[in-house]
Amino acid sequence: MPLDKELPPDTEVLIVGSGFGGSVMAAELAKAGRDVCVLERGRAYPPGSFPRDPAGVSLNFWDPAAGLHGMFDVWSFDNIDAIVASGLGGGSLIYANVMLPKDESWFTQPTPDGTATEQWALTRRHLDEHYGAVTEFLRVQTLPNGPADTAFQLPKTTRFLQMRPADGGEPAVLAPLAVRFRDDDGLPSVGAPLTGEPYGSVHGPGYHRRTCRLCGECDLGCNDGAKSSMDTTYLSLADHHGASIHTRTEVIGFTPISTEEGHLFDVRVRVHHEGSSTERSVKAKRLVLAAGTLGSTYLLLRQQDTFNIDNGALGTRFSGNGDYLGFVHSADGDLACTKGPVITAYRHYPGDGRGQGMYIEDAGYPAFAAWLMQLGQAGGMAVDAMRMVLSRKLGDVLGRRKDPNLASEINRILKDGSFSAGFMPLLGMGRDRPDGRLSLDDSGAVLQNDWSVATSEPYFDAMRTRMAAIASGFGGEFTPNLIADFFDRVITVHPVGGCPMDTNLAAGVIDTYGRVREVPGLRVCDGSVFPGPIGPNPSLTIAAFARRSALNLLAEPDFGRAPHPADEFGQPPT
Ligand SMILES: Cc1cc2nc3c(=O)[nH]c(=O)nc-3n(C[C@H](O)[C@H](O)[C@H](O)COP(=O)(O)OP(=O)(O)OC[C@H]3O[C@@H](n4cnc5c(N)ncnc54)[C@H](O)[C@@H]3O)c2cc1C
User: Fold this and answer.
1) Which domains does the chain have, with CATH numbers?
2) pLDDT of residue 417
């Protein structure tokens, strides 16, 4: 169905945001025959539409006040920066596809003030069924790595898997990825066309997917449709089952109502057009906030007084999920990091059960980044090219005979590419201290965040030590994140918390099904619901939580349960 259709005046369940939480919720409810409306502020990005040229990329940021309606939504708080996405599919459009479950023992954590140990109200037992269902539906798989899979052999992965530093970590293993590496016959194949899913595509019939081309561009949006992002999977399934999905439609507030038909919320929306916007409202019986950690917490903080939410937990327990970016440089040989999906493998450091457990993953980057690196190197390509031009000009002036063959000069300019060949980012994440608070400034309109690295220093120290061991395993040197170290700030792509669920020591904003304690009919279903870091990349846990919440919503006695049609797409071939 077209994504720019008229908004319905009312709906049974209105879902704000279409990331992992919103998409899984929408698909499960629509499959069960419920009337679902998904409102997403960003645009749709079908395969092939992600910009790559400087003009397109410069516009691909989210700031409607400045006329920007693009995909990258970059936040800068006092001590931490965050990158999230705006678009149909949310963070799945730019994520690196890793789908890891939360470590079973990590549901126990130090309290935010570090004085005690607490237990999440949610456990692995609550999530396992949903981890399995999401993993299966998204056909999560590892990079083909058998002896016959020569096209998929990546030097950085092979060497990472062979490494055995004695640093308290488990050996590297291949990461579970929501990427299609196999063709319709299940055979590993690079860039093979894929037959569409039986449930079609939310983007319409003209868009096709193919298997991974190993271009390293996952974080810019996959133009091949090889990654199983939410738009090509769960949202397409929701669309197939009749969900009403709307892009460029931003929720700006909601108020309580009570209609004879049972509507509890009047939801105000701003519909973005080129150069203008219009405002509308939609009535809903149930409202699900799935606008991401920052988006949902912001919306709930804005409505705090309207709904008399005096729970002191709102805004608390923000964490960057321990994100830390470090670098290997001068590694032996060519790591060829421009080839492959961005992340291929990980090392797990279980920690001591109370803290400091972490994951470290290899990272790749697009080929143009390698060229930029070579260009930017001190005394790099630009300087050498200028030197060649000047030397030939000088030869002219002095009347020297010129060699018409430029091969060796060009080779010298390109050098041997060793700088980029031996350079690899390392992505660390894990268990930092969830002691940040999200709040609104005095104007009541601007989100603030007081999380700082100070209380998590021991964790980040351990991270740096382990990254250094990995760098030396590659025969290279470790460069820490200079911004993090000199300016005491980190950048996260995995923000969590703000609308936390209960722990055994603290009442949260929501329960383990995402129900907002003080507002009947309202749920939160995204990264904001966790009372601490997930540890590994969080998307699988967010998706699993959303499925748990959706099944609970369907079972609500006063919501009624429609007959569940046969789950025709629940068991796709792997
Ligand atoms: C570069 C990068 C790489 C990553 N790699 C991985 C990875 O490999 N594995 C992993 O697990 N995670 C990864 N992540 C993190 C992952 O993307 C997020 O954890 C995940 O997307 C969060 O899901 P969510 O449902 O909480 O919200 P989001 O995915 O953030 O979705 C929220 C949606 O709500 C929309 N929205 C916000 N406000 C409103 C509003 N007022 N009205 C309407 N719509 C609204 C947003 O536009 C967005 O589409 C990565 C992130 C980045 C940036």
Assistant:
1) 30-141+176-322+431-452+498-574 (3.50.50.60)
2) 79
To test the pocket of ligand 1, the residue of 71, 88, 95 to mutate (highest count of ligand atoms within 8 Å of its CB) is 95
Q: How confident is the model at residue 1 (pLDDT cuts 50, 70, 90)?
A: low
Q: CA-CA distance, 327 to 476, in Å (whole number)?
A: 10
Q: What is the DSSP secondary-structure string of 401-422?
A: PPPS--HHHHHHHHTT-HHHHT
Per residue in 241-272, pLDDT (tens digit) is 999 999 999 999 999 999 999 999 999 999 99
Q: Each residue of 28-49: pLDDT tens digit?
A: 999 999 999 999 999 999 999 9
Ligand 1 probe mutation, 174, 494, 510, 542, most atoms within 8 A of CB: 494
pLDDT at residue 354, as a whole number:
57
Q: By C-alpha distance, which of 123, 222, 129 is closest to 177?
A: 222
pLDDT beyond 70 at 353: no
62-99 burial string, b = 16+ CB within 10 Å, else e?
beeeeebbbbbbeeebebbbbbbbbbbbbbbbbbbbbb
Q: Which of 184, 249, 205 is nearest to 47 (CA)?
A: 205
The whole-number pLDDT of residue 468 equals 96
SS3 label, residue 169: coil
Confirm if 45 and 93 have CB atoms less than 8 A apart.
Answer: yes
User: What are the CA-CA distances from residue 285 to residues 109, 282, 464, 562 (Å)?
Assistant: 36, 10, 49, 16
What is the average pLDDT score of the chain? 92
Please report, rounded to a whole number, the percentage of residues in the chain having pLDDT higher than 70: 95
Quote the tokens at residue 143.
């990079």
Tell me phi and psi for residue 156, to 5 degrees: -65, -35
* Nearest atom, ligand 1, residue 299 CA: 41
Residue pair 170/536 in contact (Cβ under 8 Å)? The answer is: no
Q: How confident is the model at residue 137, as a pLDDT? A: 98
Ligand 1: residues with CB < 6 A are: 16-21, 39-42, 83-87, 90-92, 94-98, 219, 250-251, 290-293, 295, 299, 343, 493-494, 526-527, 537-539, 542
Residue 528 CA to residue 294 CA, distance in Å, equals: 7
Running DSSP on this structure, what letter comes out for residue 339? S
Residue type for 353, please? Answer: G
**Cβ–Cβ < 8 Å for 189, 183:** yes
Give the integer Cα–Cα distance in Å for 521 and 133.
26
Per the structure block, which two tokens stand in for 390?
């000047």
User: 422 is written with which tokens?
Assistant: 């031996």
Q: At 289, which amino acid appears?
A: L
Mean pLDDT of 143-162: 96
Residue bearing the bigger pLDDT, 395 or 52: 52
- Give dist(CA 47, CA 231) in Å, integer: 10
Cα 433 from chain centroid (whole Å)? 20
